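Quick check before the chapter quiz. The format below is the same one you will see on the exam, so make sure you can read both the input and the output lines.
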Amino acid sequence: MTGYVEVVGHGMNAAELAANPRLDRWFVQDLNRDPVLPLPDGAFDAALCCVGVQYLQRPVAVFAEVRRVLAPGAPFVVSFSNRCFPTKAVAIWRVLDTSGHAALVRLYLERAGFAHVALRCWRTVGWAIRWSR
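Here is the expected output.
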């Protein structure tokens, strides 16, 4: 399947998660209500936040939790684009341009304790920011 021992997914829609054949297991949780991940410390070799950062009301708390569940040195990739649901995105996201989004995500992750930033911009796809613990 993936070459990984296990792929764990998180989201807000159980039907979509259940239909994803790449996931070995998954969980539904509103991270704006409860940012504490129901996962063990240091259990993951990588993490990805795909086009969801703009909706997080407590991004530093969520990213600190991601850091907690990552193994030392494991990468955390945060991807985003210039599109969002404006009624759901946090106010600061709506007033920034793409470079501002990248700077904001960098700040979130630095405050959550991540280091070793690498920024990549794909104009047709969006931004991906990689941090390692």
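If your answer matched, good. The mean pLDDT is 88.
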